[in-house]
Structure formats: C-alpha cells, structure tokens
C-alpha cells in the first residue's frame, strides 16, 4: 500500500460510530477500503437507499460513467450528508480498468458546487478525491 494511505482509513476523516453511505457499489470495489472504513467506524456501510442522514459518503466512480451523472450523484449524496461530513469520490488509479481522470471528477464536482482536492492514494488500486462545498476550504 502506498505511504499516503493509512492502514486504518483515518485519511477519510470518518470516526467511530459514523454511518457511512456508499454510492455506485459494484463488484470491482476495494473490499480492503470497505473493511478499513467499517473497522474504523464500527458500523456497516449503508447503500444509496438508506433513509436517514449519514456522517460520511464514498462514491465509487469509473471512467465511462457519465460525468453529468457523477455531478448528479454528488448533489444527491451531499443532500443526505448530515452537517459537514466527509464526501469522497473513489476512482481506479491510472493504468487500472476504469481509471478516471481527476480533471473529469473535478469538473463534475464544480458542476455540483463542490471543490475537489488533489487525489490521494487510498489503496493499491484506488485513488480518493475529497470534496467540500464551495466556501468550506479544502
């Protein structure tokens, strides 16, 4: 694992007891990332159909998915995010199937009214891009 990613998922800004919602789950997601988040929070991840506010969000997004759909997903995910909880878009790293350009993610984030941070390596195969609403800093 790259030095920039912890073994305990602290880089996401999630805490014990947090309810984390994941969007666009598919068979290619990283079970190690999911497991690290669940170990850190002590809670199972919930899906898009979860009916209450959450403390954090991860969105699995791959190249070939529609950029406008990503912007819409970011807006929908932020709407159920309680307070100022962390929101992350996870994309396959360059050279992996489905690798997405960080510029594409940044463009979708801008459309959704969010700032996108520089990608962070969160596992051997996935990068994470932390999003914050305009005016909330990076």
Question: Could you please describe the fold and organization of this structure?
Answer:
This is DUF3052 domain-containing protein. Pfam families: DUF3052. InterPro entries: DUF3052 (IPR021412). The chain has one domain: Rossmann fold (3-Layer(aba) Sandwich), CATH 3.40.50. Helix 1 (31-41) links the parallel strand 1 and strand 2. The chain has helices spanning 31-41, 67-79, 102-111; strands at 20-23, 56-60, 87-92, 114-116, 120-121, 126-133. The relative contact order is 0.20. It starts with 19 loop residues before the first strand and ends in a 5-residue tail after the last strand. It has 138 residues and is α/β, with parallel strands linked by helices. Helix 2 (67-79) packs across helix 3. Strands 1, 2, 3, 4, 5 and 6 form a 6-stranded mixed beta sheet that branches. It is built from 3 helices and 6 strands, in the order E-H-E-H-E-H-E-E-E.
User: What structural class results from the helix and strand content?
Assistant: alpha/beta
Order of helices and strands: EHEHEHEEE
Major β-sheet annotation = 6 strands, mixed
Strand content: 15-25%
CATH architecture: 3-Layer(aba) Sandwich
CATH fold naming: Rossmann fold
Summed over residues and divided by their number, the pLDDT gives a mean of: 88
Give the beta-strand count. 6
Taking pLDDT < 50 over at least 5 consecutive residues as the criterion, the unreliable ranges are none
Radius of gyration: 14 Å
Determine the fraction of residues in helical runs and give it as a percent range: 10-25%
What is the CATH top level name? Answer: Alpha Beta
Shape: globular
Corresponding CATH superfamily:
Vaccinia Virus protein VP39
Distance between the termini: 24 Å
Protein name: DUF3052 domain-containing protein
InterPro entries: DUF3052
